[in-house]
Amino acid sequence: MSKPNQNILVRVEGLKKYFPIRQGAVIRKHVGDVKAVDDVSFEIYEGETLGLVGESGCGKTTVGRTLLQIYRPTAGKVFFEDQDITQLKPAEMRAMRRNIQMIFQDPYASLNPRMTVGNIISEPMMYHRVIPRERRDERVRELLEMVGLRPYFAKRYPHEFSGGQRQRIGIARSLGLEPRFIVCDEPVSALDVSIQAQIVNLLEELQDSLGLTYLFIAHDLSMVRHISDRIAVMYLGKIVELTDRNELYKNPLHPYTRALLSAVPIPDPVIEEQREIIELEGDVPSPANPPKGCNFNTRCPLAQPQCFETEPPLVEVSPGHRAACHLVHALVAAQEMPATV
């Protein structure tokens, strides 16, 4: 894994993405919103991998797609090298996409079955006109070899490949424009366990050789720990904890993070037998009607009256470790360690 530097490549400030709820066959009256992403802020350093984890429906994929402007944000800003890309015109955003790309979750649905592999990989080059026509075939062969596939696969169609091979084709496509930042949207969740490690190792090798920066979206905490430098935990549209990967596993602060980590199996049978699993009661509330105060208060075993009234901010409670929890903030204050925004 390449060592990230301290230059911020991507900065997200107060990002929101609401999907409107409409009723009526003709007038389509706006009656509410699904708050898929609700005031999310973080930064990604050049050369690092930031893991984004949480259970299904928490807004992880929406963050990635809004960050790339596939979805236009409801509010907030996304900076790429200090340029707010939410303010770019369509033509300017198309040019910016040479620097930011995405690897999609489902390798079966993200490749056009009517196009050859060569055409799939070369399509972005043709669209952005970055490589002369006479050199595109050569570049396709280079990319196939880079992701561990044979150059002659360029003439075949997606249905001729396994899931792992299709995901390698998707990775090759994302590299065609030589991007600096890639959003990996659960790139291994649709693959067999035996193939997942191969794809993750490939992503790490490409990061080392090409100097890439990743936002790695997943729900598998073991996989995220392996590939990430820092990890952000999401719950119901909000980030509840963000810190270094080792710190998160050694010292989880938010009750939701603790519950997630308690469910991760441990290879040592002795330790596994002693592991205490924190079982959360109830279901995740609807993002169309989140609870007042802390989003986690309906399931939190440690909820206090304040949790039902006031939303806890995501603040730094120790160097590099942020948490959004009233109880954690109170413990920090009691130890005379003032939290800073």
Percent strand equals 15-25%
Question: Helix proportion of residues, in percent?
Answer: 25-40%
**Tally of DSSP helical segments:** 11
Low-confidence stretches: none
Strand order of the largest sheet: 6-7-8-3-9-10-12-11
CATH homologous superfamily identity? P-loop containing nucleotide triphosphate hydrolases
Q: For the residues shown, what is the average pLDDT? A: 89
* CATH level 3 topology: Rossmann fold
Outline the structure in words:
The protein has one domain: Rossmann fold, CATH 3.40.50. The longest helix is centred in the middle third of the chain and has 18 residues, at 193-210. It is built from eleven helices and twelve strands. Helix content is 32%, strand content 24%. The protein is of the alpha/beta class. The chain has helices at 60-67, 90-96, 117-128, 133-146, 163-175, 193-210, 221-227, 245-250, 255-262, 269-274, 326-334, and strands at residues 8-23, 29-45, 49-53, 75-80, 83-84, 100-103, 181-185, 213-218, 230-235, 238-244, 315-318, 321-323.
Any chance you could write out the topology, listing elements then pairs?
Layout: E1 8-23, E2 29-45, E3 49-53, H1 60-67, E4 75-80, E5 83-84, H2 90-96, E6 100-103, H3 117-128, H4 133-146, H5 163-175, E7 181-185, H6 193-210, E8 213-218, H7 221-227, E9 230-235, E10 238-244, H8 245-250, H9 255-262, H10 269-274, E11 315-318, E12 321-323, H11 326-334
Parallel strand pairs: 3-8, 3-9, 6-7, 7-8
Antiparallel strand pairs: 1-2, 1-4, 4-5, 9-10, 10-12, 11-12
